[in-house]
Amino acid sequence: MNGKDNIWNRKSDKLTEDMLQAYFAGKLSAEQQHEVEMWLSETGMEADALEGLQTLPTKESREITNRLNRDLQQQIRKKPRRRSKAIKDNYWAWVAIVVILLLIILAYVIIHLQSAR
Amino acid sequence: MLARLKILTDDELLLYYQRSEDVNIIGVLLQRYTMLLLGVAMKYLKDKSAAEDAVQYVFLKAITHLPKDNIQNFKGWLYVLMRNYCLQELRDKHYHTDEAILYNVSATEDNREDRVWKETTLEAMQNAIQKLEPEQKQCIQLFYMQQQSYKQIMEQTKFTFEQVKSYIQNGKRNLKLILTQKK
């Protein structure tokens, strides 16, 4: 890869949390640091994230991330099934809807016949 | 089950979710981006608890409002969601943030333009680098041509981290301008 290609191409197409952590903890070699910093020279989520994470101590960003992941798991366990899905899969719900519609039509016909007399 | 999900790509997980509607799959997907989302929120809001709230908002929104249609780029979708939330917060609550940040939001790359400058020859690139301001030229050469890290560039030039970042970002943008104007 020549210098020109370095400007437009990154070696990695994903910036992992492990890479981020190691970068901020100063545990990467100069070559690996350069690889992470290639994201900084671009625009997008990784560049913004690198900029933002620089303002947090490494340990704290790890703690907040863990806490957010734990909360997410709890939220997922609590989440009820979607209402539309419940009706769609419920045979008796459809039977009830059909019966109610038939009763409405029947009531309408009876009332209509009585008023015609 | 979870270990098996973790090796799938975002697209594969999304497809799996659309078929099964199992929210655990969204959980696996979102956890891939927790730290990145936190970083984006920190950049804009500059406040730890506000950033944490922002990530929780994006998670909730993703769980409850993930479009049924095929999302081409899940990461991009999350990024836009987070950026929009942060910009709205900045407007509503007047966090002390540089106003320029509101107007410096990058759009997606124009594919045609992208192709034009990727096809540039090495000679044209070197000529364009010569036209940059001295600091930008120096940082671009050290970073891209000599593949030095920011730390090494800082030691060599005595620039601060912010300066190095800014010279590289602006230098790259200027290079693109010079090269696309020529075409």
In short:
Chain A is mainly alpha-helical and 117 residues long.
What this model shows, in words?
The complex is a heterodimer of chains A (117) and B (183). Chain A is an all-alpha fold and 117 residues long. Chain A has 2 domains: 1-79, no CATH class; 82-117. Chain A is 75% helix and 0% strand. Chain A contains 7 helices and no strands. Chain A has helices at residues 3-8, 17-24, 30-40, 45-53, 58-78, 83-89, 91-116. The mean pLDDT of chain A is 83. Chain B folds into 2 domains: 2-103, Rna Polymerase Sigma Factor, Chain: A; 111-182, Winged helix-like DNA-binding domain superfamily/Winged helix DNA-binding domain (Arc Repressor Mutant, subunit A, Orthogonal Bundle), CATH 1.10.10.10. Chain B has helices spanning 2-6, 10-20, 23-31, 34-45, 48-65, 74-93, 100-103, 111-118, 122-130, 134-145, 150-157, 161-182. The longest helix of chain B is centred in the C-terminal third of the chain and has 22 residues, at 161-182. Chain B starts with a helix and ends with a helix. By secondary structure, chain B is mostly helical. At the A-B interface, helix 1, helix 2, helix 3, helix 4 and helix 5 of A face helix 3, helix 4, helix 5, helix 6 and helix 10 of B.
